[in-house]
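note to self — DONT lose this again. spent like an hour looking for the file last time. sequence + predicted structure for the chain T wanted, 128 res
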Amino acid sequence: MELEDQMKTLFNVNIIVALLFGLGFVLVPVTLLDLYGVSLSDQGITVARLFGSAILSFPVLLWYAGRSDNPEYMKGASRTLFTYWLLGTIFLIIAQLDGQLDELFGWVTIGLHVILLVWYGNYIFLKK
């Protein structure tokens, strides 16, 4: 499989993940965050929905990047998402180790972040 096809597979996986989490944060933030042992005030619900709307921009970016013939655009999208997965992983690990998240769902989400972080990192730093 060519590098561009592999990146398109990664983009499609990320589209699914971003749609699931983005829609969850926008439509049912209380239910979603209950899984993590997090309770929300009215203000927290608003911030969660704002976060969800930002996450829903990822599928748009990845849709266009995955259909582009421009390798620089694909690399730029990959670097953008690598940054998100890196920072998100760091913040989640800190929260998990501080006992802020449910034991199971916190580690599962960290695992998902690490998988996507490494996958993007592989294309950014190792594949030429």
